[in-house]
Amino acid sequence: MAKAAAKAAKEAAEAQEDESGDKEKEARKAARDAEKAAQEQRDNNAADASVVAPSIVASPDKADPDNILYLDLSTGGRVTIQLYPEIAPNHVERIKTLARQGFYDGIIFHRVIEGFMAQTGDPTGTGTGGSDLPDVAAEFNKFPHLRGTVSMARAQDPNSANSQFFIVFYPRFSLDNSYTNFGRVISGMQYVDVVPRGEPPASPARILQASLKSQNKPEPNYAAAAQPAERAISVDELNAPIEN
Length: 244
Known about the structure:
The protein is α+β, with helices and mostly antiparallel strands. It contains five helices and eight strands. Strands 3-4-6-5-7-2-1-8 form an eight-stranded antiparallel beta sheet. A hairpin with a 3-residue loop joins β3 (109-113) and β4. Residues 49-54 have low confidence and may be disordered.
């Protein structure tokens, strides 16, 4: 009886072990299949973009000057961004409206993650602010998030984009169809690459001036902007007695 019970217990343990092994194999297979499907989707997105882009997006030299955005950064130079109203008309119009208003002038890059992206556009510098204009509904499109992509930041609600946007350092296809890609850096990416990292950075970089090419605004004095501002002296300090 004891031997029979031991044998039965052994067989049960072996069966359980086999079942557990089968489940692990199934889980690994499911994970591989999911990754394969995700990769195929990313490849399809990239392929679709390569087909769509030439037909709807003008080359930089032929682009409407009103669809070229300049960001003059405190890191020392001008970043040129081609805007794509063909794929995200409402987001592009929002960016252009705010740029014309001078909304972005002086705003910091408040969230900068190494190997990922640099985010700006919040006047409070906290990541929770925006403009007084209403939020913009999502305009997800087939353009992949490549290096230099300019995409709209948002909260959990897909339709909560307002004024914040980010520039991608390296390809991040996981963002495709979840964030609205509305432009891409076509020159000056080196000035984005050196934006200080942090959430927020200890010494954040700033947009000194945002403008459209059509506005013909000259670049600011980057050297002067890099100097720390002199502390204002109050009237009380001027009237204070001199200490020996």
